């Protein structure tokens, strides 16, 4: 992946990028849709947190005693996640700076792979490589969860917006490598409205708020497995 893309993401985590303050997806806890999976015991075995960011998902899983590897492109995020794990005494979470679209060395390892808002952040040309890489890292029978922005989460033509998807687009991309079990409507909770700069060249839609005042942005939660 190009070095300028690494720098762009690193700028966001250093709070010097497009947004005001911390990245809006940093909410200090796992995404609620994924926290519900943890509570229900659906994230099992050794876990890959794909595009982990500052890794609240990994840290929550490690706090439950699970072994997790978080991979992210961004050195600032990986350093923050590593520091947080050390401060919390979580020894079963490790973090690696790598390009998830081409990462190797984990063949057949993970029982669960979780994508907490990564897929839509990849350039179009990187999505296929990522899904192939994740499939290679998965053990037989592994489960794959993807939480991704749906069309309508951002206005058409929004600058520095993600690659939102329709249900059919998501299904077509993932089914090349994985057997899809379910795609259901979901929400990504983010401080998006608060993080948008006043001079932004577009206006965000008016979202329903959650109990903590965060925007509930339209998304899909996909569940798939490796045969």
UniProtKB/TrEMBL annotation:
Compositional bias (Acidic residues) spans?
1-13
Q: Which Pfam families match?
A: Methyltransf_25
InterPro entries, per database record:
Methyltransf_25, SAM-dependent_MTases_sf
The segment(s) forming the Methyltransferase domain are 47-141
Region described as Disordered: spans on this chain:
1-28
* Keywords in alphabetical order: Methyltransferase, S-adenosyl-L-methionine, Transferase
On whether Acetylation is a keyword of this UniProt record, the answer is: no
Q: Which GO terms describe its molecular function?
A: methyltransferase activity
What does the entry give for GO biological process? methylation
Q: What is the protein name for this chain?
A: Methyltransferase family protein
Q: Look up and give the organism this protein is from.
A: Mycolicibacterium rhodesiae (strain NBB3) (Mycobacterium rhodesiae)
What is the taxonomic lineage of the source species?
Bacteria, Bacillati, Actinomycetota, Actinomycetes, Mycobacteriales
């Amino acid at each position: 992946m190009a070095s300028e893309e690494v720098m762009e993401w690193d700028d966001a985590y250093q709070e010097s990028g497009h947004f005001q303050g911390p990245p809006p997806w940093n909410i200090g806890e796992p995404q609620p849709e994924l926290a519900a999976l943890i509570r229900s015991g659906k994230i099992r075995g050794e876990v890959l947190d794909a595009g982990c960011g500052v890794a609240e998902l990994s840290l929550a899983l490690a706090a439950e005693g699970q072994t997790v590897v978080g991979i992210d492109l961004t050195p600032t995020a990986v350093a923050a996640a590593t520091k947080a794990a050390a401060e919390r005494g979580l020894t079963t979470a490790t973090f690696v700076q790598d390009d998830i679209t081409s990462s190797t060395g984990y063949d057949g390892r993970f029982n669960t792979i979780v994508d907490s808002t990564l897929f839509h952040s990849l350039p179009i040309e990187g999505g296929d490589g990522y899904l192939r890489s994740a499939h290679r890292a998965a053990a037989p029978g592994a489960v794959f969860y993807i939480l991704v922005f749906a069309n309508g989460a951002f206005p058409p033509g929004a600058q520095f917006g993600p690659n939102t998807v329709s249900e059919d687009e998501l299904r077509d991309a993932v089914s090349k490598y994985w057997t899809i079990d379910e795609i259901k409507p979901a929400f990504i909770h983010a401080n998006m409205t608060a993080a948008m700069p006043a001079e932004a060249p577009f206006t965000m839609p008016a979202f329903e708020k959650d109990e903590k005042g965060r925007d509930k942005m339209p998304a899909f939660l996909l569940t798939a497995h490796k045969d």
